[in-house]
Amino acid sequence: MARRRLSGQFALLILVGWTIIATAVAPAVETSWDAAQVTIIRDGAYSRLAIEGTQALAVPGAPELPVDVLQFVIPSDMEVDDVLIVRLDEEELPGTYRVAPAQPEVPIGESAEWVDPDPSIYESHAVYPESRVRYLGDGYLGGYRIASVAVYPITYAPGTGRLTLARGLDVELSLVPGANRSQPRHRVTARGDRLYRRLVEGLVVNPSDVAGSVAGPPVVVRERGPGGHEPLYTPSLDGSPVEYVIVTADEFAPQFQELADWKTMRGVPTVVKTISWIDASYPGGCDTAERIRFFLKDAYASWGTTFALMGGDTNVVPVRYAWSRYYGGWY
């Protein structure tokens, strides 16, 4: 597993004139690996590489090298402009190898057709990958913007068969202003606020930057209003918050209401909503699955909902199906 350390360096560049362009650099993350952490297994004519805590992200036919995926929390109104390597200390590993090509992923119990090494890579004298870092994109969790970066501890030179290990590698993210695309949230309970913050702090490599990273954060409220558990019939900022919603069919609503009453009594305000109520209240969706999604977005934004339980299998709570090349059918 890579050793990591954070440094609290920030940079701000402002060009003053008719336009003002601001960029920011996130804290540097220092990663390091040791040759003793690298496992090399001979598999016929090929060698397979592994480092504990890493994963494989190569496309079929490309050399299957270990990848360390780093998650950064960044301000919700900023986006990644570039990924920078500010320090690199390399060590060439002894021996020569023919690294195995990555193969397609298949469901458990099935076998894939063998994909030969990509000649544009394996017959080249260029080092693979060209860069040790690759930006994978970003997403949101509870309003927190999380950017993902792939770091390659090992590079491979197919022409010589040599492997080069990054003994030390420092990564920085160059940030620029960007639209906040997170789902709006107007209020959240104190418990929900703590939960999301702790989830994100445990996920990212810069947990000290979590606090204050959400632009226009929701209002944090108590789990119960002054009058107790008194939410409005539909998600709204009026009335008390609802932390937990249960979606089920009409015939199961009485049983799930017992669960909701018990959770509310234990301090987790809970509401049951039926499929028929959602269909009637959200007529704009193209199907029931989308209408359920609309309801959950409203509950998240206005009630401050953190938990959702789908009370039944797919024959009770409709789902949206999609064609999967991975499984070769509708799922």
Q: State which percent range the strand residues make up.
A: 35-45%
Q: What is the succession of H and E elements?
A: EEEEEEEEEHEEEEEHEEHEHHEEE
How many helices? The count is 5
Principal-axis shape equals elongated
Report a brief summary of the structure.
The protein contains five helices and 20 strands. It is α+β, with helices and mostly antiparallel strands and 331 residues long. The strands form six sheets. Strands 1, 2, 3, 4, 9, 12 and 13 form a seven-stranded antiparallel β-sheet that branches.
Describe the structure.
It is a single chain. With 331 residues, the chain is α+β, with helices and mostly antiparallel strands. It has helices at residues 119-122, 190-203, 253-265, 275-281, 288-303, and strands at 3-7, 12-14, 22-25, 28-32, 38-43, 46-51, 55-56, 66-74, 78-92, 133-141, 144-151, 154-157, 162-177, 187-189, 219-221, 244-248, 270-274, 307-311, 323-324, 329-330. Strands 1, 2, 3, 4, 9, 12 and 13 form a seven-stranded antiparallel beta sheet that branches.
